[in-house]
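Contributing new records

If you add data, match the layout below exactly. Sequence lines come first and carry their own label; structure lines follow with theirs. Keep one chain per record. Anything else will be rejected by the validation script.
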Amino acid sequence: MLQQPPSLARTTPDPRTPSSVSRNPDFTTHRPTYIPAAVTHLLHALNLLHNRHAKILDMATGAGKFTEILAARDEEYKIVAVELHKNMRRVLRGGEVEGTTVVGGDLLGGRDVSKGEGMELKGWADAVVVAQAFHWFSSLPALRSMHRFLHPNGTFGLIWNPEDYNQPPHKQCHTPWETGLRNLLLTIDDRLPRYPPAPAELFNRAEGRLCHGLVCCRV
């Protein structure tokens, strides 16, 4: 029986942003999914491929694009989907994703993940995954918090769908319209994290500070 989990850290620095987009039905309809080859590569690296009933903590799930992919696989994973914003959780719960428990969590704010779900997640997960979201909370405190949920030799994986129009100005776009859209977006100063980070520096700083068994995979 699962008991009460430890606290997680905040999944976004500004709780307004993902919450607002989740009120737009087109957000989930048109948001791109993940190519099968990338998903297979990630799962293999995390020791999840063909690992039936493996336990996965899916962090900052949003409306659940990656969660749905995990839940549809033949491995029949046991998934806990953690999302800070209630509107996003409502969308994910409305999809009735099989084998998935949806909970709230705030990695840096100190709110419990379970929100009364009665779950004990410390040392529970075979893997922690973050899809399209690590740039919202990439920090040593967040890594430490997520590490507590892994059992010894558990793994940690990140995956993004990078769009040309949502890249830093020194990156070259492939089409003129994406260049124009990127230049327009660069005029908006919302002071929110916009680009997926290069996590190598953060993980190098984390080395030796986290308990043995955290494996980070780059796809």
